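Below is a filled-in request sheet from our internal design queue. Each sheet records the structural input a requester submitted and the sequence that came back. We keep these sheets so that new team members can see what a complete request looks like end to end.

REQUESTER: design group, bay 2
PRIORITY: normal
MODE: inverse folding
CHAIN LENGTH: 564
BACKBONE (tokenized):
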């Protein structure tokens, strides 16, 4: 139930009206296969409404965004003649009619969309919308970002749990693996004791906070709902192509594109490597050997080496794997048991400069630290950047702070650089001497997560808790940060394109930001669906950069092509 009298930014769906020849105002759409105007229930043009078209029997949906005049258009190169189902995304609105249209060849089909409002927008809200709306301070709300890795804030606020109920829920949730989903609820083999210990009084505080914001009191929320605005200006000049994957349980975590244009993706909840043909939408899966049957399945980081070979970080399966596309086989490098203290988890792998010395870096979350394996000799080395552990795992160290290694990258000399996700450092390991140096980020509690090393030795990275895009120059050891002007954006990764612009995706807002680091200009794009954004890959092979994004909770892959 919703409190009366609240207002919110809204967006769109519609009654379909097929018209005749294009009016003069739509002359720019002459080369379009399908175009039209999106208007509000009051008849006013609406900007920033995402319009999608899915051909009958297809797993591919093409999406465009209405401009300042409410106009949208699908280029003839993006959709072929046929019958299409239309859909829209604009919070607070829904499709008034069935939204079916037949696109005919040789001209432009026009479908004008008029909108109707929706009273209950719970399932349209992003996590950022909920966090903006909830009562409480930034510190309290930031704690919920840990929850949104696996599920939405909507589940919390639309529940009827008391603080005592939430305490029990938190205890159960602590036992699920990072890769857990509704369809694959995998449990951890061993739960570190430090999870419960580190909660302390914080557990009760968080439980009370969640209970104060849900529907347990009177069966309704007691605060107005607020939402982020729809895209405007440059943020509407984009085409999305969404590829539905063959099973709803597939979690495409990392998506990358090889030199031939083939799309590959890691499956976060299964021991498979996926391959997508972007022309047909067909998917083929390669089964990765399961090394530890009792541990949660799934992989995370997916990277290319200089030869174009794929390397996969195997998470709880204990190591990394190299994939040979010609044979369809994997070569597995399992972490030796003498190196494992409690359990082991390898989310990240850095093979990009293996040719320098034949060695590959990866992280080791149980230490936390890094491993390096010589793939010629099979020799393993371990680094513990944060000192000696005080207890039985979980990251409590000699100077009393939690730390963890997440994003791992190497420079041209195969020196390792890493993001201290639980802390606020960028770390460096000299490949020859083994010396470890930590460089604190300018923003406290920034939680640097993932990024990318460019050819100039600059590490571009996302500050997940700091809501910044960061840059660390590995030659001068200097930082620069750019604030993202969206609350609770929670950027997962930052990547650089061939034009020098930086892209970052927000895990909580379904939005992508585009930064010109020279001018500081930022453009905001909204994705077509609720998207738990993780890895973004920039394909620079064409005239314009193209982004590829896995919808980790939505069993789909998104191709994003900015048109400027």
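RETURNED SEQUENCE:
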């Amino acid at each position: 139930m919703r409190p009366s009298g609240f207002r919110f930014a809204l967006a769109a769906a519609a009654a379909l009206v097929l018209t005749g020849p294009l009016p003069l105002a739509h002359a720019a759409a002459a080369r379009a296969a399908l175009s039209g105007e999106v208007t509000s229930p009051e008849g006013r043009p609406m900007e920033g409404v995402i319009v999608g078209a899915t051909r009958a029997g297809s797993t591919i949906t093409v999406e465009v965004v209405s401009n300042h005049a409410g106009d949208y258009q699908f280029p003839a190169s993006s959709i072929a003649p046929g019958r299409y189902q239309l859909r829209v995304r604009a919070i607070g609105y829904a499709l008034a009619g069935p939204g079916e249209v037949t696109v005919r060849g040789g001209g432009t089909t026009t479908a004008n969309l008029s909108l109707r409002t929706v009273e209950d927008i719970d399932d349209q809200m992003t996590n950022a919308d909920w966090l903006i709306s909830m009562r409480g301070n930034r510190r309290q709300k930031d704690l919920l970002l840990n929850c949104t890795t696996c599920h939405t804030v909507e589940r919390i606020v639309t529940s009827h749990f008391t603080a005592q109920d939430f305490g029990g829920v938190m205890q159960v949730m602590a036992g699920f693996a990072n890769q857990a989903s509704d369809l694959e609820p995998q449990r951890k083999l061993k739960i570190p004791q430090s999870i419960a210990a580190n909660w302390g009084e914080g557990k009760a505080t968080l439980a009370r906070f969640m209970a104060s914001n849900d529907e347990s009191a009177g069966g309704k929320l007691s605060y107005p709902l607020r939402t982020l605005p729809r895209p405007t200006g440059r943020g509407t000049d984009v085409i999305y192509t969404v590829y539905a994957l063959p099973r709803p349980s597939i979690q495409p975590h990392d998506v990358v594109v090889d030199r031939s244009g083939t799309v590959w993706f890691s499956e976060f909840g299964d021991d498979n490597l996926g391959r997508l043909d972007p022309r047909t939408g067909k998917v083929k899966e390669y089964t990765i050997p399961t090394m530890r049957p009792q541990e949660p399945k799934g992989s995370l980081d997916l990277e290319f080496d200089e030869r174009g070979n794929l390397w996969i970080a195997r998470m709880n399966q204990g190591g990394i794997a190299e994939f040979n596309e010609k044979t369809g086989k994997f070569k597995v490098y399992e972490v030796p048991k003498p190196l494992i203290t409690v359990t082991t988890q390898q989310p990240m792998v850095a093979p990009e400069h293996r040719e320098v010395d034949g060695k590959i870096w990866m992280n080791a979350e149980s230490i936390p630290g890094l491993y390096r394996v010589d793939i010629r000799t099979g020799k393993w080395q371990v680094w513990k950047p944060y000192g000696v552990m005080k207890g039985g795992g979980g990251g409590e160290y000699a100077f009393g702070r939690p730390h963890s290694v997440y994003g791992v990258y190497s420079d041209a000399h195969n020196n390792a650089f890493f993001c201290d996700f639980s802390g606020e450092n960028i770390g460096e390991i000299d490949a020859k001497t083994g010396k470890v140096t930590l460089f604190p980020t300018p923003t406290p509690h920034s939680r640097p997560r993932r990024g990318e090393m460019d050819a100039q030795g600059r590490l571009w990275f996302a500050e997940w808790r700091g809501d910044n895009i960061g840059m660390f120059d590995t030659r001068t050891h200097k930082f620069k940060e750019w604030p993202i002007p969206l609350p609770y954006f929670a950027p997962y990764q930052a990547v650089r394109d061939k034009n020098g612009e930086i892209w970052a995706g927000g895990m909580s807002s379904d939005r992508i930001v585009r930064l010109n680091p020279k001018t500081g200009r930022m453009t905001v794009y909204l994705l077509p669906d609720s998207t738990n954004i993780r890895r973004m890959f920039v394909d620079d092979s064409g005239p314009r950069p193209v982004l590829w994004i896995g919808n980790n909770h939505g069993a789909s892959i998104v191709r994003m092509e900015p048109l400027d």
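SHEET NOTES:
- The mean pLDDT is 88.
- Residues 233-562 form a domain with the Methylamine Dehydrogenase; Chain H fold (CATH 2.130.10.10).
FILED BY: M.R.
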